[in-house]
């Protein structure tokens, strides 16, 4: 009996130590930023952490003891999530796929990992992690690589194209008097117009790969945006759109920028917004709103429209050179804008949903006029 009595406290201490370790690891799993859910060998939910319950939108207590089928029938699971879960389940079972990527209804990217097999002793572990930031970094790196490649291409061919165009334009000008006498002046006008258009495309092509270094001057944000609104007012009226300018405590805010380049960026965004008013949303009163606000050492310029919006595919390729949804568009305007803003030490971002319009955000460093 004495041996048993002596062993009892040791066993108790070992049990308590084991429980502490288990509680510690359960606490870690509970507070991971990744969603974790575990089904046992019988297909019954054995564990779900706080993040996974939040992602599913279902209270943890109501999931206890559920099978996957019962979970799919839960009233808290949206139709979108139900369809995604079924698709992932099929790919895992029939194609033995253990890693899945998906984009949710809010545009966020998720990496889903399945762990099962002998090492899990029949259990089935699912982890879900938000990889939106990594995708954004990957997209930015991809964008930079494409722009670098575009620069090499443009440097090698642009001048070779412009030189013969210049020669052709000169000879057409020389032939113009003879063609006029033949009643062919309209042909000359069209040829010259098309040559000039080709030159403009080449100019955009060159700028998209390497815009000239900014020639900075001080300008107030208020005057810059007022000028842009004035320049686009007539086109907006013709399209039945309204441009509304909001200024939030930026009267004394100045930015040191290449005025021509930054004006080109803002004009491009406003004209894109005007184009977004055409088509399916033409029956809605078009409205473009421009906000400017100062946040510490930055100025935020937002340009929002109530047009048709963009889907995820368009958003993911929006700043890529030559990507366009416009008939006859070059696909260079936004890639040029991206590079110009970045060369000014700023950033440009976009939010959009189909049917709910689009908002662009330009962020630029500011400088107090009083300090100059």
TrEMBL record:
Catalytic reaction annotation: ATP + protein L-histidine = ADP + protein N-phospho-L-histidine
Does the entry feature the keyword Nucleotide-binding, yes or no?
A: yes
Q: Keyword annotations for this protein?
A: ATP-binding, Kinase, Nucleotide-binding, Phosphoprotein, Transferase, Two-component regulatory system
- Molecular functions (GO terms): ATP binding; phosphorelay sensor kinase activity
Q: Does the keyword ATP-binding apply?
A: yes
Boundaries of every PAS domain copy: 21-75
SMART domains in the record: HATPase_c, HisKA
Listed PROSITE patterns: HIS_KIN (PS50109), PAS (PS50112)
Q: EC no.?
A: 2.7.13.3
Q: Which domain of life is it from?
A: Bacteria
The residue stretches assigned to a coiled coil in this entry are none
Annotated Histidine kinase domain residues: 156-368
Q: Which PANTHER family match?
A: C4-DICARBOXYLATE TRANSPORT SENSOR PROTEIN DCTB (PTHR43065:SF46), SENSOR HISTIDINE KINASE (PTHR43065)
This protein is called what?
A: histidine kinase
């Amino acid at each position: 009996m004495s041996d048993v009595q002596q062993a009892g406290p040791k066993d108790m201490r070992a049990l308590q130590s084991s429980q502490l370790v288990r509680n510690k690891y359960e606490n870690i799993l509970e507070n991971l930023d990744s969603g974790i859910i575990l089904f046992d060998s019988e297909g019954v939910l054995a564990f779900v952490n706080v993040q996974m319950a939040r992602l599913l939108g279902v209270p943890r207590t109501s999931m206890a003891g559920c099978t996957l089928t019962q979970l799919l029938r839960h009233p808290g699971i949206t139709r979108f999530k139900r369809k995604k879960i079924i698709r992932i389940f099929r790919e895992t079972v029939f194609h033995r796929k253990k890693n899945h990527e998906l984009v949710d209804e809010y545009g966020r990217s998720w990496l889903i990992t399945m762990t099962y097999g002998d090492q899990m002793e029949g259990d089935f572990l699912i982890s879900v992690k938000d990889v939106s930031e990594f995708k954004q970094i990957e997209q930015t790196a991809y964008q930079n690589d494409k722009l670098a490649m575009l620069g090499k291409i443009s440097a090698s061919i642009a001048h070779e194209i412009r030189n013969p165009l210049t020669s052709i334009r000169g000879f057409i000008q020389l032939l113009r008097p003879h063609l006029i006498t033949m009643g062919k002046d309209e042909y000359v006008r069209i040829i010259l117009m098309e040559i000039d258009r080709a030159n403009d495309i080449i100019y955009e092509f060159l700028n998209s790969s390497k815009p000239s270094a900014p020639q900075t001057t001080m300008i107030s944000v208020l005057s810059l945006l007022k000028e842009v609104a004035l320049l686009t007012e007539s086109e907006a009226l013709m399209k039945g759109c309204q441009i509304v300018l909001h200024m939030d405590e930026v009267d004394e805010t100045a930015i040191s920028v290449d005025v021509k380049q930054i004006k080109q960026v803002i004009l491009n965004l406003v004209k894109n917004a005007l184009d977004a008013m055409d088509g399916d949303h033409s029956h809605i009163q078009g409205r473009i709103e421009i906000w400017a606000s100062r946040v510490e050492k930055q100025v935020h310029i937002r340009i929002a429209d109530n047009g048709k919006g963009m889907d995820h595919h368009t958003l993911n390729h929006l700043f890529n050179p030559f990507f366009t949804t416009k008939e006859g568009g070059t696909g260079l305007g936004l890639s040029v804008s991206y590079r110009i803003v970045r060369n000014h030490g700023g950033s440009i971002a976009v939010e959009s949903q189909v049917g709910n319009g689009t908002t662009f955000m330009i962020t630029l460093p500011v400088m107090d006029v009083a300090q100059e």
